[in-house]
Amino acid sequence: MRANEAEHTYPEPVSNGVRRSIEALPGRFLGSAIAARYRLDIGDECCDVVVSPDACHIEPAGWGKPDVEICTDATTWTAMDQGRLSGIEAFADRRLVIRGSIDRSLHFEPSFRRAHNGGLRYSLSRVPLGRCQISSLVAGEPDASPLLLLHGLGATKASWLTIVPELARTHRVIVVDLPGFGASSKPNARYSAAWFAERMFGFLDEVGCSRTLLAGNSMGGRIAMEMAMQRPERVQGVVCLCPATAYSRRPALQLVRLLRPELSVAASRLPRSYVMGGLKQLFAQPGRLHHSWYEAAVDDFLTVWKSPWARIAFFRSLRNIYLDEPLGDTGFWTRLARMQTPALYIYGRRDVLISHHFARRISRTLPRAEVEVWADCGHVPQIEFPTRTVEAMTGFFGRATATGVSGIRAASG
To answer: What secondary structure does DSSP assign to 11-37, as a single string?
Structure first.
């Protein structure tokens, strides 16, 4: 070997670096709230990381069925391993693919010690609330303005992952699985908007949050409005993305009143194709999302759907949305007209579930609210247009917290 060759340092093959970082995981293990088998498919490397609450070891892929598959490239994995990027950020940027339970995948990263190099850091917990436990994810600086995110019917906290990293730059973001959904407890309960609101105030008490900003999608938007109507002193501002509201026309009212959600226990099997088709209908242009996102979302939904109590919670919540009284002294629209909390409403013109025509009624009912209709959007703006949604939310929250009132009414589309 010539002298100049001996002095030159050749770079280590990328696959060797990935392998070494995976082999180091047991030594960096901090413990896990769950037991799970994670299959890592990273470039040329594929193996299983098996964790329990107090142990972690590596096995060759194929020794068991994984709970979660995490697929990414070597560059993204290295950035995650070095703390420059989080798995949530990689997922939001479509640099990481998840199959199986999204909720279980969220437990992977916090289970291992890693450097602080600018990547999003978050924590997961199950907050006790009476006989229930609320599964939550918290990201952002502890002293930042709190922001509680509420998902829609049949969804989980995973529906917000696309915008959590950006929101966490300016807020202490708290994302929950509502009781009855996701990884939270599924009690035998009413599942009305008022019931959810009461539980969310109890949750905020438990995490030491006396006042917060709120954002809700679909059913979550209805719950956010209920919270603002019930306890306005605790809600600083509300963003409602395609929110559910009370229907004035309910042709099947008597039939729905007679239907019993408990019958849903028998509906344990849903064809994957049926769930996939319904999910894609939520978006104005389904092709905007990579097919891997749909696969992960369907996996997550079907995992939860196996629980009979999850199915009961779903149908009770759906029934209560339809039965929500629109008028009268205690009706939804009567009460909403008295709401003083600054509010932003965003509707999708191509939403197949919640008509964008509700925007006009919201404008009449709440003249000081900001109301927008996005012509190119479906039912889930935060997933279909994450950047635009973050800009709208952060801009509104800035105005709401600066003045205490909305004061600006805007309409588009």
So the answer is: PPPHHHHHHHHHHTGGGGB---SS-EE
- E strand intervals along 218-331: 235-241
Tens digits of per-residue pLDDT, 166-219?
A: 999 999 999 999 999 999 999 999 999 999 999 999 999 999 999 999 999 999
CATH topology of domain 3-111: Nonspecific Lipid-transfer Protein; Chain A (3.30.1050)
Fold classification of 122-403 (topology level): Rossmann fold (3.40.50)
What does the alpha-carbon distance between residue 56 and residue 25 come to, in Å, rounded to a whole number? 8
How far is it, in rounded angstroms, from Cα 287 to Cα 81? 31
- Of 399, 289, 389, the C-alpha closest to 347 is 389
pLDDT at 353 over 60: yes
Mean pLDDT of 370-392: 98
Residues forming beta bridges with residue 348, ordered by sequence position: 374
Q: What is the pTM assigned to this prediction?
A: 0.91
Q: 179-206 burial, b for 16+ CB within 10 Å, e for fewer?
A: bbbbbbbbbebebbbebbbbbbbebbee
How far apart CA 65 and CA 50 sit, in angstroms, is 11
